[in-house]
Each structure stands twice: as structure tokens, then as C-alpha cells.
Write a structure and sequence with these properties.
The complex is a heterotrimer of chains A (369), B (312) and C (293). Chain A is an alpha+beta fold and 369 residues long. Chain A contains nine helices and 21 strands. In chain A, the strands form four sheets. In chain A, strands 6-7-8-3-9-10 form a six-stranded mixed β-sheet, sandwiched between helices. Chain A has a six-stranded antiparallel β-sheet with strand order 13-12-11-14-20-21. Chain A has a five-stranded antiparallel β-sheet with strand order 15-19-16-17-18, with no helix packed on it. In chain A, strand 7, helix 5 and strand 8 form a beta-alpha-beta unit. In chain B, helix 6 packs across helix 18, helix 7 crosses helix 12 and helix 14 packs antiparallel against helix 18. Chain B starts with a helix and ends with a helix. Chain B folds into two domains: 31 residues; 228 residues, MetI-like (MetI-like fold), CATH 1.10.3720.10. Helices cover 74% and strands 0% of the residues of chain B. Chain B is an all-alpha fold and 312 residues long. Chain B is built from 18 helices and no strands. With 293 residues, chain C is mostly helical. Chain C has a single domain, classed as MetI-like fold (Orthogonal Bundle), CATH 1.10.3720.10. Chain C contains 14 helices and no strands. Classes of the chains: A alpha+beta (369), B mainly alpha (312), C mainly alpha (293). Chains in contact: A-B, A-C, B-C. At the B-C interface, helix 1, helix 3, helix 4, helix 8 and helix 9 of B face helix 1, helix 4, helix 5, helix 6 and helix 10 of C.
């Protein structure tokens, strides 16, 4: 069972503050949609609006084509997993999972069957008679999911479900959530501030900022074609290097100047997009900048400030002009701190963003359906 | 979720919608609101008899207004002035003599290292709090009994005269405050202990490395750290100077000790409940309540000042 | 607990002196109760001649037996149980739902109602109007008057509300998504969560009921309605202060003193039994009510 969810011109105000500002969003049945953004961007509120824990100030929310604005949470066919799990501490795992079913005057045998099914899916059988206090963080997380599954919801809502777990468990649970979605096929709305979770889990990602949807797209689309410097900086780790630059055009050639010493010629394709452009933000991902210029025609020169060896690779912090950029260097390259260095930038993979409006001006933004 | 966030809902929907949605919450609140209206606010309307010549036959509404006559009567009465003075004296002595005891006790308990000993001491000193005033008074009377009480036996053994302490006005405050300390000092230390528990242990560890003695740690770390708590509680007590333990005083005092023992509340009790002069007693009550309210408001302001800016 | 620090010689002496003083204080706290107990178990002769100071002299339970035969003592005991149990239950039934509702930010007029309740802590009409109000309500000399008229106080409501406010709102949200309404959320989720706070409030109410005497003395006139504390006051305080009955019971294995002791001991026993179990809740109550206001 899965349902589509649609938000039309949804606005949520808290007093004077607009937390969700005119959001339009369509979630396809069975889709895994991740809402991501910095804290306070409105992602959790959006989720809570769909859950029915908050009421919209204006606009409509529909689930499976039915408007749910005035429906109580229980009548919306949604289930939710909370950041702190909200397991009832006085109830056993079994009673936690069956809490909602017991309220709905379902038959005992049916409840037992539903609990058994959920427990089997999440491998919770040995834990059913324990109290929440006796469970580890990962187990609590699974019980919280069991409580959601058992209601057989059309839409699953996850509110930062992994942020209370340590790094290792988080990776493990991420895989488990992904597997669960593959198996159950429900629609999922998932809120996180962790771009890695968003990238690995999502069919589509919604990046939010200040109550507005900044960009919607598949993880690859967001990574390859960020609509703004904000998205570019948010998706990817370490984040994209963003440094101020000036566009210079002389004859056919278009180039960007980075600080006093460095200039980079852009491909011809850039020309049309950059006519009349002046001050921009230059963006290049750490993996698209290389330490050893292979016959680079136009190396950038800088000074190594710091090297962070990560084992298989190193992060090299290089100062170019007044700005610091990060370069991901594969293998164990020996780089001298404080020494001068030449860098090669893959000009096929660079980005330029407006300095004021943040929008991507090059490469020309793709129109995403 | 912050309160500001939740309260915003108010602006999004109408009052009627909200009440329909949350009617169960209002239903939960209703009995208590009715209770407060009937048992706390309705008597406030009854304060009007302080300004009336109350007669049982005419009832509260039918009795004629007399303005401030009862207040004039009160302020011309030596007994009322005596009650005010006694109230203030008992409060003052309690403030000075009784309120430091729980602080000292808390500091001492905090210095105990052994958990078992600490628990035992706490259990012992908290216990008197749970003994009723009637029993405390009973024990006090037994201990001070002129014929065979322990105290008089001891005095006699020391070659001193037996004294019927409970009939002697000069002893009343001592007996009252002493037995109040016995009853409440231990229990009152809980709040100071809680404040001490909140002190960052790293302060003590660094002081230890700096070579501080335990006494220095008490005077330089513990005491200054709980000073805000001490200040706030002191101010609250200042605001409550008119609230003396009249239920306890009634058990201990007798006509011969009224000179020092009769406080405003016991005066009201005797004139009003025992003497059935409701109007005069209510006037005394009005005076008491208004002054108490002013004191509490001032104290609240002061305590807010202390909690916000600290005392240092 | 931290591990025991290493102390200098001076600090160790400090600790010893502290321990000795605290032991003395603890003994002072216990002594009057021990004394009364010993007094009650001594012979009448020993009791009235002042020989008892620590242990019972001429051990006997005669005074206790005499008190136990008094039917009024048992009636007042039973009354106290009644007032304590029904009074505490009534208090909880009023306090818990009200405090829960007040803890919810979505409640309209929450601040106004909160003030309406808290104001009674700062200003109350006083003894006489309160008494006259009860008289007008026909609650004088009435058992249920005692139960209901003292069922609530602002402090308990605020204490309970503070606790409910400290509970994470996600419990309510999870229950709401599970389909629970406000009554169900309170009953099935918040009340079990609030057990420690409820125990604290229940004990505050119960102890106040068990130990309170003043209003029972003022309001109850019929002898078979009075609670234990009023009975105690009549027998222990009033008799002693006038000392009018002294000597009337000579030639008996008990005396006025030992009888007094026995009444006190017998009435304090329930408190002594539950005290060790409830101690921790009181500590919690003091801090819960004290932190916020």
C-alpha cells in the first residue's frame, strides 16, 4: 500500500515567523523522498504538517488525492518515527508496537498477527517482552519503526530518525531503512540534516532553506547540477569549494580571475551564459581539483596550509589568493605543508554562481521535472 | 518543540475551532477551575463583611455597611497591635536564628563521604518533618512539664529551680523557634543540598589541585555557589513574615503567654471562630492579607532581581 | 558518586569532627521520639515521677492497652484513614487532569487560568471568609466538606504542571498518530510517565491530611467524625495544659504521662512505617517545586 502526497501552496506561520513559505511538492506513491536542509529551514515543520501534528496556515495537503487539512493524524494513514523514538517507557516492546492497534478496538488475534509480522520484518522477536530501557539505541530505533510498520501506513514519516545514533549504527540503520523500503514499498518522507543520509537513501531529495524549496531532484542531479551555491555547499562532503571570482572576457576567450595570481580560461560553452557577468562565485568540488597537474595548460598556484591524511586519501587545504580551498588527493601523496603547489582544475566540472542571488549561472541549470 | 512554536496555533484557528478540537483539555481543567472559584474566590467576595456590621440574621448581603469602622476599632485595640508586633518578632527571630540552620546542615551533610552514613543522617534529620504539629506540641509539653518533665528534672539535678516554661511569656519564642528548628531544619536542608549537588565537581577538583583545604572549599566554592539559592529563599521568607505557624502556636500558647505568643492569625481565630465576631476578625484578615500580598510582591521583585543578575 | 579524594591530616580531622557533630544532630532529631516511646512503655509510677529519660523503666504495655481499649481512639483513627485516602484520591483526580491541561501550550487562556490558580498562593481571603463560605455551602461538620474543601492547592497544581511540561512532547505526538485522544493520552501515556511526580503529590496530600488538625478542629463538631489529630489535641494537649485530670488515674499501672506517650506512639506508627519508602519522593517534590515557579 502506498499513496501519493501533494502539497499545494502550503504556508505555515508561527506568530510572525513564516516557517514554511508557499511550498509545492508532489511525492509519488512508493517514492522515498528526503527533505534536507540546515536546522530551522522548515523541513521538520513540513513533515509535521503532513503528519497532522501542526495545522497549515494556508494551502492544502492531500494524501492519495484526498484533502487532509482538517483530518486528525490517525485518519491520515500516516505513521511517524521520531528523532527520540518516543517509545512509551512503561510499556514492553510488544505493547509499544501494538499501542495504536489496541486503541482502535481491533481484535486481539489480529493485533497479535500484526505485531508478529512487524517483529519478523525487523527481527524484533527476541525483544518483544523487554522494556524500552533495556534496549540499545539501535534496537529502540527498530522498535520505533516497528510501531510505524504495524499500522500499515500509506505514508511513512521519519523525523531525523538516525541522529541519536553513533556513526557506525547510523550506517547500519541506513541500510536497514533502505531495505525496508524496498520490501514494503510505502511512500516515505524522511527528514534529515545529514546530506549523506539524503544521498544514500533518497529517490529524490528536497533541499529546503528558510521555508522555501531550494531544489528538488535525484541525488545525482543535485550533486551534478546544483541550482544554487547553497545546494552546492550542502550536498557533497567535503563540500564544494566556493570562492569569489571575477569574469573577464577578451575577444572569444572567457576566463575567471581568482585572486591576484590565478586565472582560469573557461570552455567556449560558458561564454553565452556569462555575458555581462562580473563578480561571481567560483565552485569546484574537492575531487575535481588535482594536485599533480597532468600537463595542465593553466595550473592554479597556491600554498599548502594543512594536510589531513585520511588513510586512503588526504584532504589538502590550499590557500589560493586570500581563500582557502580543499583538495581531495587520492592515495598517499607526499605534500609538504607551507610549500607552494600547483593545482589542476577540471574545467569541465566547474560551477559559477551569482554572488548576490546565489543561483547557478554556469553550467546552465537543467530544468528538472 | 518550543512553546512559542506551539502557541502559534492560536493564531491560525478560531477560538471555537480550538475549543471543539481540544474540548477534552477544557473538560479536564473545568473541575479544578470550579474548585478554585468556589473555595478560593468566593470567600474573597466574603471579605466585604470586614466593611459591614455583620449580623447572622441579616446575612452577608443584608448587613449594613459601616466603612472602615472595624479597622478603626482594630487599630485602637492594644491586642491587635500586640498581635502585629508578636508576628513580626517571631518572624524576625525565626529568620535570624532558624533559617541558617538548614544551610549549615546541608553543608555538613555534603561533606560526608560515606554514602551509608550520609543516608542515615538524612533519614534521621528529615524524620521530624513528618511528625504532626499536635504530636510535636505533645512532646514539647511532656518534655517541659513542670512536675516531671525531663528538662525540669535536669534543672533540678543542676540545682536550679523548676519552671513551668509554657506559662512564661519570656520563654515562648524560644520554645516555638527551637521546636520549629527541630521539626523543619533537616527537611529544609534538602533544597540547599540540591543546590550543592548542582555545583560543577570540576571546581572542587581544580581547587584540590591548587591545594585548598576542605574548609576553604566550603567557604570559597560551595557557599558562593549556593548564595543565589540562599538569597532567593531568604527573600521569599521575608515576603512571608506575616505567615507564622499559627496552627502550631494555637497548640502551645495559653492566656498567660499571649503577651508574646498571640499573633495576627491566632487573634483572628480567637475573635472570629471562637468569639464569632466575624466582621472584626475579617477586617484583621483583610489587613493581614493585603500587607502580605504587598510583601510577597516586593519579595518577588527582589528575588527576580537576584536570580537574574546574581548576587555577586 | 566520585571516588574518595585523598585528604591531608587536617582535612581528615575536619571530616571526623563533622561526622561527630552530624551524629549528635541525628540523635537529637530522633531523641524526642525515642523518649516518648520509652515513656509509653514504662510503668505509670516511673512515668509520672520522671525516671524515664532514654529506655523504658519498669517495662509494661499497660498504657498502650488502655489506649487501645478506647473506642474513640479507633474511630478517630479510622476517620483519619478515610480522610487521608479519599482526600488524596480526590486531590489527584482534580490535580492531574488540570495540571495536564495547563501544561499544553495549545490551551486557550492558559496564562490567564494559570494566573487564576497561582494568585491564590499570594492572596487568600483568610480564615473567616473561608469559614463563612463553608458554612454557606453547608459543609460544616461534614465529612465530605473536609474531603472536598481541602482537595486542591495551587502549589500542587503547579508542581504537577511543571512535571508534565518537562515531558517530551513527542510522546503526545506519537500517541496522537497512534490514534489516541486527549483522555487516552493522559491516561495511557502521561499518567504512567508521571508516576514519580504523582507519587510525590499524593504523598504531599496524604501527609497533609494525616497530620493536619486545624480545620478539622474548627469544622467538625460531632465526636465520631473527628480525625486522629483532633483526638490527640483533645487528649494530649488540652488535658495536659490544664492538668485538670492529673491524679485522677492514680492506682493504675499507667499514668497521664505514659498514656500521652502511648497515644502519640500509636498515632505516629503509620508515619514511621511508610516514611522510609516515601523519603525519596519528598526530596523530589522539594526540587520539582523549587526549580521552576
Amino acid at each position: 500500500m502506498a499513496a501519493n502526497v501533494s502539497l499545494r501552496n502550503v504556508v505555515k506561520r508561527f506568530g510572525q515567523t513564516i516557517v514554511v513559505n508557499d511550498v509545492d511538492l508532489d511525492i509519488r506513491a512508493g517514492e522515498f523522498l528526503v527533505l534536507v536542509g540546515p536546522s530551522g529551514c522548515g523541513k521538520s515543520t513540513t513533515l509535521r504538517l503532513v503528519a497532522g501534528l501542526e495545522q497549515v496556515s494556508s494551502g492544502t495537503i492531500s494524501i492519495d488525492g484526498r484533502e487532509v487539512n482538517n483530518l486528525a493524524p490517525k485518519d491520515r494513514g500516516v505513521a511517524m518515527v521520531f528523532q527520540n523514538y518516543a517509545l512509551y517507557p512503561h510499556l514492553s516492546v510488544r505493547d509499544n508496537i501494538s499501542f495504536g492497534l489496541r486503541l482502535s478496538s481491533m481484535k486481539r488475534a489480529d493485533i497479535a498477527a500484526a505485531v508478529a509480522r512487524a517483529a519478523a520484518i525487523l527481527e524484533l522477536e527476541p525483544l518483544l517482552d523487554r522494556q524500552p530501557a533495556e534496549l540499545s539505541g539501535g534496537q529502540r530505533q527498530r522498535v520505533a519503526m516497528g510501531r510505524a510498520i504495524v499500522r500499515n501506513p500509506a505514508v511513512f514519516l521519519f523525523d531525523e530518525p538516525l541522529s541519536n545514533l553513533d556513526a557506525k549504527l547510523r550506517t547500519q540503520m541506513r541500510v536497514e531503512i533502505k531495505r525496508l523500503h524496498a520490501r514494503l514499498g510505502n511512500t516515505v518522507m524522511y527528514v534529515t540534516h545529514d546530506q549523506l543520509e539524503a544521498m544514500t537513501l533518497a529517490d529524490r531529495i528536497v533541499v529546503m532553506r528558510n521555508g522555501i524549496i531550494e531544489q528538488i531532484g535525484s541525488p545525482e542531479q543535485l550533486f551534478d547540477s546544483p541550482a544554487s551555491a547553497f545546494v552546492a555547499a550542502f550536498i557533497g562532503s567535503p563540500p564544494m569549494n566556493l570562492i569569489p571570482c571575477t569574469v573577464e572576457q577578451s575577444g572569444d576567450a572567457t576566463s575567471v580571475r581568482l585572486g591576484a595570481d590565478n586565472q582560469l580560461c573557461l570552455p567556449l560553452a560558458a561564454r553565452a551564459a556569462l555575458i555581462g557577468a562580473g563578480e561571481l562565485l567560483f565552485g569546484a568540488r574537492p575531487e575535481d581539483i588535482h594536485l599533480q597537474p597532468r600537463e595542465s595548460t593553466q595550473p592554479l598556484s597556491g600554498v599548502v596550509e594543512l594536510v589531513e591524511p585520511l588513510g586512503g586519501e588526504s584532504l589538502v587545504h590550499v590557500r589560493i589568493g586570500g581563500e582557502l580551498i580543499v583538495v581531495r588527493a587520492e592515495g598517499r601523496q607526499r605534500v609538504q605543508s607551507d610549500g607552494p603547489i600547483k593545482l589542476h582544475v577540471d574545467t569541465g566540472r566547474i560551477y559559477l554562481f551569482g554572488r548576490k542571488d546565489d543561483r547557478c549561472v554556469y553550467p546552465a541549470p537543467q530544468v528538472v521535472a | 518543540m518550543s512553546a512559542a512554536r506551539q502557541s502559534s496555533i492560536l493564531k491560525d484557528s478560531s477560538l471555537l475551532q480550538d475549543i471543539r478540537r481540544d474540548w477534552m483539555l477544557y473538560a479536564m481543567l473545568l473541575p479544578a477551575v470550579i474548585w478554585f472559584a468556589v473555595f478560593m474566590y468566593q470567600p474573597m467576595a466574603g471579605l466585604q463583611i470586614a466593611f459591614k456590621q455583620y449580623s447572622v440574621f441579616k446575612g452577608m448581603q443584608g448587613s449594613p455597611w459601616v466603612g472602615f469602622d472595624h479597622f478603626v476599632t482594630l487599630f485602637q485595640s492594644d491586642f491587635f497591635w500586640r498581635a502585629i508586633l508578636n508576628t513580626l518578632m517571631i518572624s524576625f527571630y525565626s529568620l535570624v536564628l532558624a533559617s541558617p540552620v538548614p544551610i549549615i546542615l546541608a553543608l555538613m551533610i555534603n561533606e560526608v563521604q560515606s554514602t551509608g552514613f550520609r543516608k542515615t543522617v538524612q533519614t534521621a534529620v528529615y524524620l521530624p518533618h513528618f511528625v504532626s504539629f499536635v504530636i510535636v506540641a505533645g512532646i514539647v509539653i511532656a518534655l517541659l512539664s513542670p512536675g516531671n518533665g525531663l528538662v525540669n528534672n535536669a534543672l533540678e539535678a543542676l540545682g536550679l529551680d523548676r519552671t513551668y516554661f509554657l506559662t512564661r511569656p519570656e520563654w515562648f519564642r524560644t520554645i516555638y523557634i527551637g521546636s520549629s528548628i527541630w521539626k523543619e531544619a533537616g527537611f529544609d536542608s534538602i533544597i540547599y543540598l540540591a543546590a550543592i549537588m548542582g555545583i560543577n565537581p570540576a571546581l572542587y577538583e581544580s581547587a584540590q589541585i591548587d591545594g585548598a583545604t576542605r574548609w576553604q572549599m566550603i567557604t570559597r566554592i560551595t557557599l558562593p555557589s549556593i548564595l543565589p539559592t540562599i538569597a532567593v529563599l531568604f527573600v521569599i521568607r521575608l515576603g512571608n513574615v506575616l505567615e507564622v505557624g499559627y496552627e502550631y502556636i494555637i497548640l502551645l500558647y495559653q492566656p498567660t503567654t499571649y503577651d508574646t505568643a498571640d499573633v495576627i492569625s491566632t487573634y483572628i481565630y480567637r475573635v472570629g471562630i471562637q468569639g464569632a465576631r466575624y466582621d472584626i476578625a475579617a477586617a484583621a484578615g483583610v489587613f493581614n492579607a493585603v500587607v502580605a500580598l504587598i510583601l510577597v510582591l516586593v519579595a518577588n521583585k527582589l528575588s527576580r532581581h537576584f536570580t537574574r543578575t546574581g548576587v555577586f | 558518586m566520585m571516588s574518595r579524594p585523598i585528604y591531608s591530616v587536617g582535612d581528615r580531622w575536619f571530616g571526623r569532627v563533622n561526622a561527630i557533630l552530624l551524629t549528635i544532630f541525628a540523635l537529637c532529631a530522633l531523641y524526642p521520639i525515642v523518649y516518648v516511646t520509652s515513656l509509653s512503655m514504662s510503668s505509670g509510677e516511673a512515668g509520672s515521677s520522671g525516671q524515664v529519660w532514654l529506655w523504658p523503666v519498669e517495662w509494661t504495655l499497660a498504657a498502650h492497652q488502655h489506649v487501645v481499649k478506647n473506642s474513640l481512639f479507633w474511630i478517630s483513627y479510622a476517620n483519619t484513614f478515610f480522610y487521608t485516602v479519599t482526600g488524596t484520591l480526590t486531590s489527584l483526580a482534580l490535580v492531574i487532569p488540570a495540571a495536564y491541561a495547563l501544561s499544553k501550550a495549545r490551551l486557550r487562556g492558559r496564562r490567564v487560568i494559570g494566573f487564576f490558580i497561582a494568585f491564590t498562593m499570594w492572596f487568600h481571603a483568610g480564615m473567616i471568609p473561608f469559614y463563612l463560605n463553608l458554612r454557606d455551602l453547608d459543609l460544616l461538620d461534614s465529612r465530605w466538606g473536609i474531603v472536598i474543601a481541602f482537595a486542591l492547592n495551587a502549589f500542587n497544581v503547579i508542581l504537577m504542571r511543571n512535571f508534565f511540561e518537562s515531558v517530551s512532547p513527542t510522546f503526545e505526538e506519537a500517541a496522537r498518530i497512534d490514534g489516541a485522544n486527549d483522555f487516552q493520552i493522559l491516561w495511557k501515556v502521561y499518567i504512567p510517565l508521571a508516576k514519580p511526580a504523582i507519587a510525590t503529590v499524593a504523598l504531599l496530600c496524604a501527609i497533609a491530611r494525616w497530620n493536619g488538625y486545624f480545620w478539622s478542629m474548627v469544622l467538625l463538631k460531632t465526636e465520631d467524625k473527628i480525625p486522629l489529630q483532633v483526638f490527640l489535641k483533645k487528649t494530649v494537649i488540652e488535658v495536659n495544659i490544664t492538668e485538670s485530670v492529673a491524679g485522677a488515674i492514680s492506682q493504675q499501672p499507667y499514668s497521664l504521662e505514659t498514656i500521652t506517650g502511648a497515644i502519640i506512639v500509636l498515632s505516629i506508627i503509620p508515619v514511621l512505617i511508610v516514611y522510609p519508602m516515601i523519603q525519596k519522593y519528598f526530596t523530589k517534590g522539594v526540587t520539582l517545586g523549587g526549580i521552576k515557579e
